[in-house]
Structures are given as C-alpha cells and as structure tokens.
C-alpha cells in the first residue's frame, strides 16, 4: 500500500502548493487518482469547451449582429471561456507527467493567472447578465438608461481590467521549484509566503466571488417573486418560462462550478494553516482535488445559457445543423421578455421592433 502513495514524508508546515501532491506533510497523501482525474477531466473540458465556445464566437461575430446588452455580455463570457480552455493542454501535460513542468516559470505564472482570470471574469459576466435581466423585468425604465449595448461594452471592459488588476499579486506569488528531477508549477506560492497568500486569496474570493454571488442571488430572488405573480396570456407564459430558465441555468453554474470549488479550497487552506490532523487533511485534499475540474466545467456549461435564452442564437444553430451553414446576419428583433413597470401592475410585452428602438429590458440575441 505504501508503494501506491505519491507524496513525500517531511515536516508539517504550509506547503508550496496546497492543491498539489508536492505538499510537504507529516503524513502521506495517496494522490494517484489526481494523475488520472485531472488530465482526463481537463481533456474533456478542453475538447467540449473549445468546440462550443469557438462556434459561439463565430456566430456572435458574423451572424448575430447587431448585439444588444445581453449579447455583449455573452460574447465576453464566451471569449473568457475560450482563452481559458486554450491554456488547458499545458496543465494536461503537467498532471499526466506527474507534476513535471518543463515550460518555464513565466508560462507557469501566466497559466495559473489565466485560470483565476477566467474564473472571476465568468462570475462577473454572469452577474452582469443577472443585473441586466433584473432591470428589464423589475425596472424597465431604468433599463432604458443602463441597459444599452454601449454601456454593456464599457462594463465588460471594466470587468476585464478590474479582475486583472486584482490578480496581479498572483503573478508574484506563483512560482516554480525543483524537487529531484521534477519541476513543480505551484498553484499558490513558496512555503514561507503561504500565510500571506491565504490572506490575499481570501480577500479576492470575497470581492470577486462572494459579493457577485450575493448580488446574483438577490436579483434572481426578486425576479422569481415578480415572475410568479399570476399574469394573463399565452405569450406571457412563454416569456415567463424563458426568464425562469435563465435563473435556473445561472444558479446551476454557480452551484455546480463555483461554490464547491471555493468552499473546499477555503477549508483546505485553513486546514493547512491550523496544521490539522493528517487524516482530516487527506480527506479535505481529496475533496478539493475533485472540485477543481468542476470549476473548469463552467467553460462547457456557459454555452447552455446562450442556447436557452437566445432566440437568434437557437435559430442560427438550428440552421447550421440542418442546412450546413448559418443564415445571413439578421436585423435584431426582441425576445418576448417581461416588461414590468415600476409603478403599475405587472404586464408583459412580446413585440418585434426596429433595432434602433428596443423594448426595455429586451434581449435580441
């Protein structure tokens, strides 16, 4: 049994990488599963994510113009996912080679940076979509002012820059080290700076995940309460169903991809700092490793969001599957979306308007 165990026996203390098998512990980690789980799961995410997001970018760029605000957010979400999946081949090699990184320290820093950049940009773009749809449903008059594609484009640019600036310290924390004939690419930092890294990581998690997650939950809670009010009309039922599907998909992405990863990572980091019992640390380590592919899976789940709430996206994709090519670019027409005035009883709109005069809160994706 001891021969199947991959970690080394050393002194208890903050590990160079609390997520990898090079962790230096006063106990043994059986991490053979990681060298199968991570390469296989990352390979699946790479193949599915690259195919789905490349197709999505192509449709957005050449066949879904002009964009509305929701389409703008979704394009940037797909771009973020594509950049992330392009980084996965190096990690697939790294874990398949049993934690050997031959690509240099600079690329190690960039790949680790790219993971968190994609992760938190995805969180914030989903939050932007949530706020936009909340305004369109509950405050359509405000959506006229803040729901335009120009404002959405500027907000997306701000998201890219703010997340990148917040993660700059990660470029200094992350490094490589040599252990015998193996070059390790640490996911965190060197042992003597691990406590500082945990404080930095906790602040980033609260700012770029905790707060957006809370805003998303509040928006969708208020939307669900408004949508469940009895309203007449068949078209209105269709619009209600579309909006509820959006709520379900976004909350599923948060619940499956983001929440387990952040919870298990926090528990693991705290366990390392408190020098927890070896058995407890082994259990937490295994659970944390299992949730890491889930965080990457958002690159595959996000395209489901485009499919469920974008009429134009579905039409173009259906045409591509049936006829071997998409339709020519179309002028934008609004989805049947909820438009609920702030000072009157709820009402629904289901109209097709000129693209220069979109309905409040309407998505023309």
Automatic annotation (TrEMBL):
Residues 52-306 form the G-protein coupled receptors family 1 profile domain. GO terms for cellular component: plasma membrane. One of its GO terms (molecular function) is G protein-coupled UTP receptor activity. Pfam families: 7tm_1. It is found in: Cell membrane. One of its GO terms (biological process) is transepithelial chloride transport. The chain crosses the membrane at residues 40-61, 73-95, 115-135, 151-172, 197-223, 244-263. Residues 1-22 are annotated as: Disordered. It comes from the Eukaryota. PROSITE patterns: G_PROTEIN_RECEP_F1_1, G_PROTEIN_RECEP_F1_2. Keywords: Cell membrane, Disulfide bond, G-protein coupled receptor, Membrane, Receptor, Transducer, Transmembrane, Transmembrane helix. InterPro entries: GPCR_Rhodpsn (IPR000276), GPCR_Rhodpsn_7TM (IPR017452), P2Y4 (IPR000018). Its main location: membrane. It is a multi-pass membrane protein. PANTHER family: P2Y PURINOCEPTOR 4, PURINOCEPTOR-RELATED G-PROTEIN COUPLED RECEPTOR. Belongs to the G-protein coupled receptor 1 family. This is P2Y purinoceptor 4. It comes from Odobenus rosmarus divergens (Pacific walrus).
